[in-house]
């Protein structure tokens, strides 16, 4: 595949590694979520739209972890919610387990909901402070009419044990737990309905580094035991390093790079990916001093008024005239490694990514 | 902002129509004395009552009566030669046959005077009390203040009114220094009316001040925990400035909302207890009489007027909020 | 590491600082005998988990530990004065003037109702006798200094109109308003995206080069410390458990807790391992921490001696490299696994892909 001279255009379900026979559990095609901006004294008329998600396609295989990475405001949280139909996509298709789920009725979606769960960023605000752990973890089961063998309390205790909490603490309130423990409660709640897919939206960003490692290891263990599929959303390529099989990098509502994790970390193609990698702090002072860091200037532009053509061209160190004229398509650079860039870093004669990256020891 | 205000005004008009419909319905659904009979007096015969009923329009269907009423209230002009009575025509009182609008307008000055004075008393007392209690939390002063306010909150206004009369009224009081019951109606100079209002102001003002002081105290304590207050101290600002500028500015904002709503409700007739105790001829006292006599046009008129105050002051509060809190934008 | 030629004079010296809070459950020993020094122009990194006492210690330096149930003892010597003995007004003259501080969450740390410019002007005028116009000009310059484009216009905006990174720049500008000798940054990048974090860390480095002030950076992330610090102190359960130069902490860490912190970092500069080395369990109670070494019940290498409380002292390493661990330094070299590029409490599993 990598021998192809011409990069080939992305197929509908970008990045499906159909070669190894793995079957996709989630297929997202041309997903768009625009939030209209309205104005008018009496009668509203649309004067524009916040293009939070603007034509995103990818697929996730059963048992796989996709790392979805980008800065705040890149649309990754909106994308997660649009996938789960927590907000209605403007257009595009989301297939879960082979079935189209956009446009499903409330009732039909309700039946599917248990199979797709979400873990949230902030373990402090995502748990109801007035409910006991047994309720927080057990209520989804009650809501979906699931009566576990051995009773609800036993089921909750098993879940608590599974996520590494003391099952005797089922009667406590969230405030009696530390941040890391609360995130475990959030995970137990997500697991309570035996989901197939978990979308974790920045699940460790609010935690201390030492606790992040615990949660990441827990998520990995659970994936193995329960055959889970993850979409792991993060702003930090470092955090998904240990969990992701494939990485999708998002910028202003679009995927700019998508590929096998090892490839993306070792040979990033899109300059934005490179700058994200370059921003990750390295706990090695000498390596740090040696690397040439690329620090992006300014903030992500407003998704209500994104730059023309390649959206990254306003901040890109390699941008040329073509970047502000023509929107580069997401094309395969070989081995299922896609990128949308006029000046891909894997092309000859470019300043290689290696200069900005610390060389693996 | 313009869009917000226009939309809110339209919504307000609909709300007022709904309010009058609800009052109308309540009056017809729940049995009360027949207004025609009340008007006719004890000796009236059936024909007389029927004549009165027709003259009041009570023989028409509920819908027709309601339609006539709505037209009267909302028709913008007083057009000669039509059945239109111009804007704000609430009909005539069943009881006294006076134009309801005139009655309400003649009652309003007393109520407005009562409320304005009381607001000055309660804000004047509550703001310093709330600040001092918050700053000296758990001190003797704080505890004493909180107990006092609790007493004022727990005491019903009419009881408090009687206590104040017993203590200070110039006719029955132990320390006869302020004019007592009925002195407002008797006073014919403005100074006399002000004097007559002193006790009502104190009663209504202090009772409400207690609530506001406690609310402000808890707001202040919450704000003191904010990160930006820590920043203010870290900048090296003197304590006084941190409290009077940074903390109070945030803590007072929700108080403004509360104030707007309380004033609206009081103008709408909620000063009924204070007005009754001190025999002040205001909107509250009028409400009391109208209900007693099943005077539908009066009740309607007062209710709509009250609803108007509440809706308007709500809008004013929301607009004020946008100026007080720059994060709030309505568009 | 930078500017070692710079005057090695001590600017701040904290000696046996204790901050205890009396609560219904008992005395919370948030900071329990911490000593450290900051030299002029130097950057000290203080690292630890939530609840290790790192933030409380630094707030106490500025006299911002205002809780009525707090007892503070020890000495905080700043340019010959003991800050613990200063009165309110004397402390106010130091705060935001000689010692400035920035905080974790730049959104909640700025007053939402006041314009950014007015908050800056206030910070200037409280310490300097200048007119409002002069202060406004200085404020605009400060915003420019910290890299906020279009400072003249933005000075009239409210904090919510700024992005997270830009707000933290505003906080930094405010802290720099009076050319402080010491800047304390409490988790300055924790609430930010990595890209923004990189911007802020570069900014801090640049400002330190230009202005030459001393800094304390407080963080839970050793990666952040590695980028900017000269020396590092690792705190655990209200105590310093290890202290040394950047190289000593990163290439010759002595305390198993430091090993754990290093091992739990995800690293993009190393081949991916199957598992992250994690520190098991939760931080201890600060009311009744384990007797002896506070880390002992989470430490896989604990032995009998660990029931005795170890002092912070040089234990065979280089001068100035101190720790609180009873394990023989030779044995430590075997226990911590450095050879494969992983320093952790547990030996790393086989490297996958």
Explain the overall architecture.
The complex is a heterotrimer of chains A (361), B (331) and C (353). Helix content of chain A is 26%, strand content 22%. Chain A is α/β, with parallel strands linked by helices. Chain A has a single domain, classed as P-loop containing nucleotide triphosphate hydrolases (Rossmann fold, 3-Layer(aba) Sandwich). In chain A, helix 3 (133-143) crosses helix 4 (152-162). Chain B contains 14 helices and no strands. Chain B has helices at residues 2-29, 35-40, 46-56, 62-74, 100-135, 140-154, 157-168, 183-186, 190-224, 227-234, 239-270, 272-277, 283-292, 296-324. Chain B is globular. The mean pLDDT of chain B is 85. Chain C is α/β, with parallel strands linked by helices and 353 residues long. Chain C has a domain at 246-352. In chain C, 29% of the residues lie in helices and 22% in strands. Chain C is built from eleven helices and twelve strands. The radius of gyration of chain C is 21 Å and the shape is globular. Chains in contact: A-B, A-C, B-C. The interface between A and B is small, with 4 and 5 residues.
What is the typical, i.e. mean, pLDDT of chain B? 85
Largest interface: A-C, 51 and 52 residues
Specify the helix fraction band of chain C.
Answer: 25-40%
CATH architecture verdict of the largest domain in chain B: Orthogonal Bundle
Distance separating the two termini of chain C? 36 Å
Work out the strand percent of chain C.
15-25%
Low-confidence stretches of chain C: 1-6, 338-342, 345-353
Question: Which shape of chain C, going by the Cα principal axes?
Answer: globular
Number of discrete domains of chain B: 2
Helix content of chain B: over 70%
- Give me the number of helical elements of chain C: 11
Q: Total helix count of chain B?
A: 14
- If you compute it from the alpha carbons, what radius of gyration of chain C comes out, rounded to the nearest whole angstrom? 21 Å
Secondary-structure content class of chain C: alpha/beta
Largest sheet of chain B: none
Total count of strands of chain B: 0
Q: What is the H/E string of chain C? A: EEEHEEHEHHHHEHEHEEHHEEH
Unreliable runs of chain B, pLDDT <50, ≥5 residues?
none
Radius of gyration over C-alpha positions of chain B, nearest whole angstrom: 24 Å
Terminal CA distance of chain B: 6 Å
The protein's oligomeric status is: heterotrimer
Q: What is the element layout, followed by pairings?
A:
The complex is a heterotrimer of chains A (361), B (331) and C (353).
Chain A: E1 8-9, E2 24-39, E3 45-61, E4 65-69, H1 76-83, E5 91-96, E6 99-100, H2 106-112, E7 116-119, H3 133-143, H4 152-162, H5 179-191, E8 197-201, H6 209-226, E9 229-234, H7 237-240, E10 246-251, E11 254-260, H8 261-266, H9 271-279, H10 285-290, E12 331-332, E13 338-339
Parallel strand pairs in A: 4-9, 4-10, 7-8, 8-9
Antiparallel strand pairs in A: 1-12, 2-3, 2-5, 5-6, 10-11, 11-13, 12-13
Helix pairs in contact in A: 3-4, 3-5, 4-5, 5-6
Chain B: H1 2-29, H2 35-40, H3 46-56, H4 62-74, H5 100-135, H6 140-154, H7 157-168, H8 183-186, H9 190-224, H10 227-234, H11 239-270, H12 272-277, H13 283-292, H14 296-324
Helix pairs in contact in B: 1-14, 5-6, 5-9, 5-11, 6-9, 7-9, 9-11, 10-11, 11-13, 11-14, 13-14
Chain C: E1 10-23, E2 26-39, E3 43-47, H1 54-61, E4 70-78, E5 81-82, H2 88-94, E6 99-102, H3 116-125, H4 132-145, H5 151-154, H6 164-176, E7 182-186, H7 194-211, E8 214-219, H8 222-228, E9 231-236, E10 239-245, H9 246-251, H10 256-263, E11 313-314, E12 322-323, H11 329-335
Parallel strand pairs in C: 3-8, 3-9, 6-7, 7-8
Antiparallel strand pairs in C: 1-2, 1-4, 4-5, 9-10, 10-12, 11-12
Helix pairs in contact in C: 3-4, 3-6, 4-6, 6-7
